[in-house]
Amino acid sequence: MSTLLEQAVQAHGGIDNWAKFRSVSAELDIGGAVWPLKGLPDMFQGIELAASLQRQHVGITSKGAAWRGTFTPDVVRIDSPDGHIEERHAPRESYQGHTHLSPWDRLHGLYFTGYALWTYLTIPFLYTQPGFQTEELSEWHENGEVWRRLKVTFPDSIASHGREQMSYFGEDGLLRRHDYTVDVMGGAQGANYASNYHTVRGIVVPMSRHIYAYDDARQKIDEPLLVSIDFRSIDFHTE
Question: Superkingdom, according to UniProt (predicted)?
């Protein structure tokens, strides 16, 4: 583990504390310009989440819209109260030929949201798992701060935006920004800003994430706000 990753893990609550937990639950709202563009406005407003921390398994429930979705890398499924079931195997294959403008159905939206939330809720501890490769790069100046940058290469076994991603950590060791290209959107770029940190059972987590595009110099493009993620509650569980 790199020195930067060690410091980041410690700042977010420590690996020993993290290892106590098996699952996470949350209440949250997801918005932003991406969803109307994809034809799914408000699909993830007012949702509840229950996820495993040991494997990529996420349940998402919308009480208002009366559906429950399940994400795994291999299968996504949406169940409705009337017994209607939507299901897709090998869901990543369904994005072939997509660009950032391609419309999505609900299963597209669920797969993307499932892997994204699971990734966000497990960083930086995720990077300590077998198969991840990390490399510290040069410092970055933004918002009047100096951030240390960690390039992370994901193993093929983890569903995420893309294999190479970048995390920026402040002097306090907390995540400030997370960059990636989104394979399922034809390589669209995202700069994901983490803020509003709370401590939950000893784990330090950002309650807000705002995602923007960035230019060739990695400078944030302020408009539009592509995705907003605002957690109303998060809790970690030992079972």
Answer: Bacteria
In whole angstroms, give the CA distance from residue 98 to residue 108. Answer: 11
Q: What are phi and psi of 123, to 5 degrees?
A: -75, 140
For residue 34, what is the enclosing H or E element?
helix 34-38
Report whether 25 contacts 48 (CB < 8 A): yes
What letter would DSSP give residue 29?
E
SS3 label, residue 237? strand
CA-closest candidate to residue 233, choices 18, 63, 28: 28
Which domain CATH number covers 222?
Answer: 2.50.20.10
Distance CA(126)–CA(151), nearest Å, equals 13
Q: Average model confidence (pLDDT) for the chain?
A: 97
Give the domain extent around 125: 3-237
Mean pLDDT of 210-219: 97
Of all helices (H) and strands (E), which one includes residue 23?
A: strand 23-31
C-alpha to C-alpha distance for 41 and 131, rounded to whole angstroms: 36
Q: How many domains does the chain have?
A: 1
